[in-house]
């Protein structure tokens, strides 16, 4: 079995490494982080409950800022490392290369670092300060000192300060791996203790809560806290521990903490009320009790910690696979990587077109909505009005009016009508082109393998858009050719099948020539309109076919063909194309470090836990 404290020392090292790598979040650790999986002790109590004095007694050093009101305004993650001897010293995570041997300087650094985030106000921040203390006089332990709970905001504090502090404290003690050290002053009714009330809320069974009674020496004469300490007044799963803090006079005289510990021990041993409990009282006993319990909790949770580590290692490995491994320096490896990236992009692009991803349906929207709407808006009513038909027919006849049917007039009316179809046809080509360009952009953004190569992204986008421009030009020529084909050869059978309508009786007062001409022109306009409608239905079906054939199908088959042909001849430029995004390189480096941390943690836990 591992020696006492060895597991805690290992956990301290792992937690510190997690913090350095940012593998933690709000509260004591981020959701699902290794920090969160490792147990620690949160110190909870009301303002002026004696929290700071308890911590200093456990450490054996006077190192925390003091004052009235809210003094702890940021969480302090305090990691105690037991050494075999030598000098005591402290290190802050925010000043990793600086070693503090003067603990008055530690106090000042905590105050300065607090002010750096919160300013010289009474505001609070949930950004923790990380402090490690190395000493032969401590036990291996991780303690988190939290701002004191309060019931009212004082001058200079926001009205929300009461709730803000409670929310911050809860963000730590809500976590199932957090052990709660609930500090309550003995000279106040335990039923009103802020710490006990909060602990009862988040840990109703009391499995995670240790109760600490401070200020036993300040109770009213003739009263004592034996009922609380023996668990009769408020029972917890773990024993209550009484603490006698240094008096203000001792603090003013700079009585050191080791002397205060001896004085505390003498108080309990000589006390008629607490003498029988003396062996289970005091800061030194509390530190050992917490250390033993923490060791037991860690050992019990080793299987779940290892399972969580293994799961995270698999997730990091998968992330590294998505980001891509480092590329070889030779041209062959670089060319293979580029072609592999292109194929990955091409797969995503085809998925957009074929419906595996959204976007391709917008092409159908062009054919089913935009094209019919544009055709419907064409000004045939105005173009085939009687006035315009008369004008076109007259101009086509020239000096010699037509005898039976105005064939030249018909042809001119049809030709000029058909020319209107060019606008919607070209607009459909352009609309599909824009959809395809947007799908190229989306596909590049969605291709995970490409994200690490911004230059290659740009090159592929440029090559794809060049191809789309060629496809658009082919599509434009094809749809215009469809319109011109309709104008080149009219469907004669349509006109041969038109019924010959007898002239209707007219008003006797209307000249015969006018009556005939109006009806005749009206019938010509109607015939041309019917023919144009027939052509419109044909184009409504053939324009989409042409666009899909020339643009969509070509984009699926040959989008990067020219790029493939040219990239092989750019041997000297391959490395430039694979110039990685610095942000992704940084992300990959961070993942590699996290992977090393988790693998190292797994190996160390395995080696220490079952010795």
UniProtKB/TrEMBL annotation:
Chain ranges of the Dynamin-type G domain: 35-303
InterPro entries hit by this protein: Dynamin, Dynamin_GTPase, Dynamin_GTPase_CS, Dynamin_N, Dynamin_stalk, G_DYNAMIN_dom, GED, GED_dom
An example Gene Ontology biological process: cell division
Pfam families tied to this protein: Dynamin_M, Dynamin_N, GED
UniProt keyword annotations, A-Z: Cell cycle, Cell division, Cytoplasm, GTP-binding, Hydrolase, Microtubule, Motor protein, Nucleotide-binding
Superkingdom, taxonomy of origin: Eukaryota
GO MF annotation, one: GTP binding
Transmembrane segment boundaries: none
Subcellular location: Cytoplasm, Cytoskeleton, Phragmoplast
Domain GED: 521-611
GO annotations of cellular component type: microtubule; phragmoplast
Family, per entry: Belongs to the TRAFAC class dynamin-like GTPase superfamily. Dynamin/Fzo/YdjA family.
Subunit annotation: Forms homodimer and may homooligomerize and heterooligomerize to form the phragmoplastin complex. Binds to PHIP1.
Entry protein name: Dynamin-related protein 1C
């Amino acid at each position: 079995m591992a020696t006492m404290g060895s597991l805690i020392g290992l956990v301290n090292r792992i937690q510190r490494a997690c913090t350095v790598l940012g593998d933690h979040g709000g509260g004591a650790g981020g959701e699902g982080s290794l920090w969160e999986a490792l147990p620690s002790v949160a110190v909870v109590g009301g303002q002026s409950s004696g929290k700071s004095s308890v911590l200093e007694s456990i450490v054996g050093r006077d190192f925390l800022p003091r004052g009235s009101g809210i003094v702890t305004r940021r969480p302090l993650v305090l990691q105690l490392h037991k050494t075999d001897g030598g000098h005591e010293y402290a290190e802050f995570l925010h000043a990793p290369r600086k070693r503090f041997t003067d603990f008055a300087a530690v106090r000042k650094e905590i105050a300065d670092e607090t002010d750096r985030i919160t300013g010289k106000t009474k505001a609070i921040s949930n950004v923790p300060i990380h402090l490690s203390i190395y000493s032969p006089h401590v036990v291996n332990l991780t303690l988190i000192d939290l701002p004191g709970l309060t019931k009212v905001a004082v001058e200079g504090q926001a009205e929300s300060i009461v709730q803000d502090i409670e929310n911050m404290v809860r963000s730590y003690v809500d976590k199932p791996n957090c052990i709660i050290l609930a500090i309550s002053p003995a000279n106040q009714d335990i039923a009103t203790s802020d710490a006990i009330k909060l602990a009862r809320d988040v840990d109703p069974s009391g499995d995670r809560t240790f109760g600490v009674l401070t200020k036993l020496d300040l109770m009213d004469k003739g009263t004592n806290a034996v009922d609380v300490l023996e668990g009769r007044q408020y029972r917890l799963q773990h024993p209550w521990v009484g603490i006698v803090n240094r008096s203000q006079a001792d603090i003013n005289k700079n009585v050191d903490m080791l002397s205060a510990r001896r004085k505390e021990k003498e108080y309990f041993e000589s006390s008629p009320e607490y003498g029988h409990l003396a062996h289970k009282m005091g800061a030194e006993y509390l530190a050992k009790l917490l250390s033993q319990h923490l060791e037991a909790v860690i050992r019990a949770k080793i299987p779940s910690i290892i399972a969580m580590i293994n799961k995270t290692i698999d997730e990091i490995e998968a992330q590294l696979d998505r980001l891509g491994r480092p590329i070889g320096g030779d041209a062959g490896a670089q060319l293979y990587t580029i072609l592999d990236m292109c194929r990955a992009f091409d797969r995503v692009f085809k998925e957009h077109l074929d419906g595996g991803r959204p976007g391709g349906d917008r092409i159908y929207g062009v054919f089913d909505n935009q094209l019919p709407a544009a055709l419907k808006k064409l000004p045939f009513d105005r173009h085939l009005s009687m006035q315009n038909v008369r004008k076109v027919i007259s101009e086509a006849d020239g000096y010699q009016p037509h005898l039976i049917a105005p064939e030249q007039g018909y042809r001119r009316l049809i030709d000029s009508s058909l020319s209107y179809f060019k606008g919607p046809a070209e607009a459909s080509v352009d609309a599909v082109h824009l959809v395809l360009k947007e799908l190229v952009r989306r596909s590049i953004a969605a291709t995970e393998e490409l994200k690490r190569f911004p230059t290659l992204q740009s090159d592929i986008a440029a090559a794809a858009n060049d191809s789309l421009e060629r496809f658009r030009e082919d599509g434009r020529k094809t749809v215009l050719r469809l319109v011109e084909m309709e104008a080149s050869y009219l469907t004669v059978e349509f006109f041969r099948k038109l019924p010959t309508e007898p002239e209707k009786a007219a008003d006797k007062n209307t000249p015969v020539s006018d009556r005939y001409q109006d009806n005749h022109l009206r019938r010509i306009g109607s015939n041309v309109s019917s023919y144009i409608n027939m052509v419109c239905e044909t184009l409504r079906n053939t324009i989409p076919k042409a666009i899909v054939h020339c643009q969509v199908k070509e984009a699926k088959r040959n989008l990067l063909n020219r790029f493939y042909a040219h990239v092989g001849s750019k041997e000297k430029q391959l490395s430039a194309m694979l110039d990685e995004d610095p942000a992704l390189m940084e992300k990959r480096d961070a993942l590699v470090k996290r992977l090393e941390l988790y693998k190292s943690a797994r190996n160390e836990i395995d080696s220490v836990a079952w010795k």
